[in-house]
Structures are given as C-alpha cells and as structure tokens.
Amino acid sequence: MNIRAAFSILFAAPFLLLACEDEKKPAPPAPSSSAVTSAPSVVATASTSATASTSASAAPAAPLTAEAFCVRLFGRVYSDFAGACTDEDKKSEGFKLASLIATMPLEECYFVVRDGVAAGRVTFDPAAAAKCADAAEKTKHMMKGVHIATPDIDELPECAAVVTGKQGDGQACRTTFECAAPLTCIGAHDKKEGACKAPPTKEGEPCDGSLWRHHDFGHRRRCGPGLACDVPNTATTKVVCRKAIAKGGACGDNDECEEGLACRAGKCSSDPPADVGGACDDDTDDCKDGLYCKREKGAKLGKCAEKKAAGQACTDVFECRGECRRGDGGAGGTCAAVCGSG
Length: 342
Hints:
Structural class: alpha+beta
Strand content: 5-15%
Number of strands: 15
Helix content: 25-40%
Number of helices: 6
C-alpha cells in the first residue's frame, strides 16, 4: 500500500465526523503495534524525539542506532504538523486525533526496528540505515494542513537492508521482519505472537496481514508467487492468501494486485499516481499529492484536480487543502484553512 495513501486515509477518517464527508469509506485496520495507546503520551514522545532528531542530524559521523534511525526519519512528523497549527486549531477534537496519527510512524518504527533489535530478533545495519535515511530525506513530501505525509521508505531500494530477521522456522515473532528471509510471521496480532513460517502457497491459507505502512523493508512477501495477502476490511476479518490480480484487472486496493502493481482508477496498473486531469476512483491512491478525485454526477470515474483553497465551496473533506466545514448540517460546506493549509 502506498504510504502517503494509507496515512492520508487514516487522517481523513476522523474529519469525516467533523467536516462534511458524505461518502462512507472504511479506514484500513490500525497497525498491530500496541505501542500507540493515547494521544497525550504519544505526542510527548514525538516532541521529545523531534528535538533529539536535530542533535542526531548535527553529528552525521556518528553511527545511527536503531532508535536514532527512527527519530531521524519520523521524529519531526508531529512537530512539522503541529508547528503550523494555531491555538484555535489545537482546540478541536480533530487536532487531537491528528496528533495521535502524526506520531504513529515514530511509534511504529520503535516497535518494528528498535524493539526488534532489543529482543535479539533483528539485526540492524547502521550503514544501510544512514543510506536509507539520506534517500528518504531527498524524497520527503511536505504537505501543509491536515494532509500529513511521511517518507516513502517502502518504495526505496536503499532501505531494504536496514533490518535482517533472525528468527528461524517455527520460532516466535511479532512482525515478519523478525523472521529470517523468506519466512513470514503468521498469527501475530496485538499482544499475541505468531510463528515464522514459509510464505503460504495456496489460496485460503492464513498470511501476515499486518499493515506496517511506514516500514515495509524490501517488500517482504506475505504469500507465494501469484498470491496476495488479503488485508481485512469491514466485510471480512479473515486474513488469507488470494490469487493476485494481474495488470488491467479490477481491484479495490493496492494489496490485491500482483507484485509491482498498484490499484489505479479501479484497475491494477504499473502507472504512478495521476496528475491533474488523470482518471481516478480514489482520492488518495490514484492522484498525486495535493490533488483529489473530482467526480461529476453519474460518471463512473473522476478526474484528478487541485485541492480547493479556503473560502471555496465543498461537499467532501478530500476536496479542501484544509477542512470542509458546514454549520447547518446540510450537504454543502466551505473549505476552511487549518494548520497553515491555506
């Protein structure tokens, strides 16, 4: 799953209750990490880590530790977001929820990398980590307002060798990255550990459906060739391997497509997110950053368009750079600036 897409969907979900979203789009399941517990404690962690990130950057010659690696990549996500918010912005419930989501990447990195190293289940390569961090910083997308973005390390080949799993066949695991390649972690959920096993090769067999959105080092396979791990949604909670959809086939999510493909405008494709005017079916996966999927009434597909500035009419939270607000409870609303969105 595209990292910016997943993160944007997560962030947008709370604002569906606060703004003027009429469509019911199910949010993907939360990360299986139990480290994220409450907004206040997580925010404090991220704020402290953001300060540490500056110190780490000031001494590039020092080898990165697992924790410093996480801080360098994700410690500033919260501070970058909150720093553009006014005192008025910070009074809203939306800001509180956004604060929690903005700190998720750091907490998830701690769970996958730092804690894996501490448990002796993962080896960490400081040199590879430095290359990964350098590459991530060059491709970082900075977005103002409520549309938070993080480095796309899952798409960077420089990040594939940062961690190496040590757990063998049948040994306990919390994440697939704790397993020696090509093994995958089956059965891990919240506080329950799974076991490292060979990737399933038959349709219907259980697989690792954890959404490690920000840390899919090397795109570890969850199922055998020709299969994809079916990420649970509102219709099913059973995580099993299913036949992967080939290029051109109808899809609803990136994870359904064959390796190397993404779900674009309802079909598995090798194309990147579309620019203005490009066909789209989803606001987050199909269009480039800063765009949304504009739909005409009755049209099967929409077209990517620039997000609207404050003061423009809106009916959907994804249309605006900031929020879509309505005071009368009706279908129509007005885009409002929030957290420096404009």
